[in-house]
Design goal:
The complex is a heterodimer of chains A (114) and B (112). By secondary structure, chain A is mainly beta. Chain A has no helices and twelve strands. In chain A, the strands form three sheets. In chain A, strands 2, 5, 6, 10, 11 and 12 form a six-stranded mixed beta sheet that branches. Chain A has a four-stranded antiparallel beta sheet with strand order 3-9-8-7, with no helix packed on it. Chain B is globular, with a radius of gyration of 13 Å. In chain B, a hairpin with a 6-residue loop joins strand 5 and strand 6. Classes of the chains: A mainly beta (114), B mainly beta (112).
């Protein structure tokens, strides 16, 4: 079955700490990968995406993610978090084999202490 | 900027009522989606539509129906609301199914 697993449901960090949010997926064939973010009181929006090419992708606000095909992973990273990064982060995947139906992970709530 | 507008931010309904959630997008996107978002469960797809008058069931269609009479509008219908349908409902649209989805602000529905 197609699924996305996010390793942590809640993460608390101090400002300037490094961030890595884990994401593993189960989805056959070629995949497209996404991280979406929902800031408090705001719409869910795209943070970054991977379709093909360089497996290290960069997104908005200094975030990056690395697609490791052999590990079925797409972990999100940021070297130094800010208080404004407090949000909920969702990993998502879709692909031709699933009819391009997007599967979302359960989400990780990040709280950054000032 | 793509705009996806959901008609209500908050709704309170009674068990057994028929509920309509409306969603409009302004970017001429072919594809539209309805999700429900519950804590610890992420987003779960209820229905999606890839063209006018076309619809496909998602993962949790039971108790819901949809309507897409015009390209820009996608409605979610709860025929007889139940308390277990209390949730946040998100509408999204995309140019292609594989591509980026653009989300509305969400409708928080409480069924009493």
């Amino acid at each position: 079955a197609q699924s996305v697993s996010q390793h942590n449901h809640h993460v608390i960090l101090s400002e300037a700490a490094s961030l890595e949010l884990g994401c593993n997926y189960s989805y056959g064939g070629t995949v497209n990968l996404f991280w979406y973010v929902q800031y408090p009181g705001q719409h869910l929006q795209l943070l970054l995406k991977y379709f093909s090419g360089d497996p290290l992708v960069k997104g908005i606000k200094g975030f990056e993610a690395e697609f490791i095909k052999s590990k079925f992973s797409f972990n999100l990273r940021k070297p130094s978090v800010q208080w404004s990064d407090t949000a909920e982060y969702f990993c998502a995947v879709n692909g031709r084999e699933g009819g391009f139906k997007t599967i979302f992970g359960a989400g990780t709530r990040l709280f950054v202490k000032a | 900027d793509v705009k996806v507008t959901q008609s209500s931010r908050y709704l309170v309904k009674r068990t057994g009522e028929k509920v309509f959630l409306e969603c409009v997008q302004d970017m001429d996107h072919e594809n539209m989606f309805w999700y429900r978002q519950d804590p610890g469960l992420g987003l779960r797809l209820i229905y999606f539509s890839y063209d006018v008058k076309m619809k496909e069931k998602g993962d949790i269609p039971e108790g819901y129906s949809v309507s897409r009479e015009k390209k820009e509008r996608f409605s979610l219908i709860l025929e007889s609301a139940s308390t277990n349908q209390t949730s946040m409902y998100l509408c999204a649209s995309s140019f292609q199914p594989a591509n980026i989805q653009y989300f509305g602000a969400g409708t928080r529905l409480s069924v009493l």
